[in-house]
Amino acid sequence: MIQVPQYTRDLLPADFSNDPSAFVHAFQRVETVARASFHRYGFQEIRTPIFERTELFARGVGLETDIVSKEMFTWLDRGGDDHEGESLTLRPENTAPVVRAYIQHQMWTKSDLVKLFYIGPQFRRERGQRGRFRQFFQVGAEVLGSNDHPAIDAEAIEMLMGLLAELGIGDTELRINSVGDEECRPRFVEMIRRELADKIHLMSEATRQRYETNPLRILDSKAEEDQPFIENLPSTIELLNTECRDHFEAVCRYLESRGIRFRIEPRLVRGLDYYTKTVFEVVSFSDAIGAQNALLGGGRYDKLAETLGGPPTKGFGFALGLDRIVMALPETTAGPGRPDLFIVHLGAAAFEKGLLLAREARTAGIACAIDFEKRSPKSALRLANKLKARFALILGENELESGQWTLRSMADSSQETIPASDWLASILAAIGSVRNAE
Prior knowledge:
CATH class of the largest domain: Alpha Beta
Radius of gyration: 23 Å
Largest sheet: 8 strands, mixed
Structural class: alpha+beta
Strand content: 15-25%
Number of helices: 15
CATH superfamily of the largest domain: Bira Bifunctional Protein, Domain 2
Strand order of the largest sheet: 1-5-6-11-10-9-7-8
């Protein structure tokens, strides 16, 4: 009898039933909630092929990572055409394919800030564990553009923590760190090699190999015998340059202002070479998850597009494992990325206020976008039109001082003044009226 390959599984009819414990039913619930959350934050869906040219992952993810060196399903194309003999790989992760699509289709020409999300299978040749398979499902999102403002990092993390809360997933911890940039990395490598020089012979075989090829990956080791040595290493945060330290401190400040609790984990690096500056993960303490307790993770990757032959592009993204999220579950849909509200800010104080208002709007179910650039009012309103926003909330020093804010209908350019004390109710009423008319 031919059976399913090891560390894969069939999804049988019972998995599709309406029983809340059925895998696919729970999967679809997570997907529905995630889509609604992505739409509120202005993300649009993208689907890339499940296989790509191997070079994409070798260059993008990194030759010395476990994914590329050990875990990829790779073969030579035998298609009989001009590409015969080309090396192809089932995608082991989806950030590199999304960035490849961003470059190939010149998506930066359509918007200064491109927000994309995906849902689909990934493939890694690894030993199966509880909640981990060789074909597994991920939900992820990427923010791509010219801006690396730390508020972008914090907003994406805010969205994720809100998604977990909406799903009823508690008993988690958000852990964050900064892995610096190309100026910081040599300092990290020098420190690791210096501190472990007389101890490396006591560590795992994989770590001894990484000591020679990619010392930073040692911090990502899960080998039990390595942990005492890794825990005693100095913090990489102390070795950050001024730019990276300021960025990290700003991310922490934005998270704190949103009431999002986190723990700084100075040895968190994640397992991919393309990360720069912010990295993070959310772990679960639920007994259902088991020892490998990371639910999701991600970070900033400001050089990946250039590595793949694209223009200088800042990036921030994350991915969550559907199997693990479903295991952590206790027993709305929105429009396709079109914002109901676009916040126009004039000045630093208005920008800071606008970030908090965007959060309140999204919590109330409003699809809201905010500009991370410093633009003139005319240029900002042009962007709101480009995004097909229904309304624009205009905030400047005068509006903040008077407590009377300007709400502009993008359909007919009419404007009205709304009181700051009742702004959310006023906007909800205006949006409801427009939707009814549509």
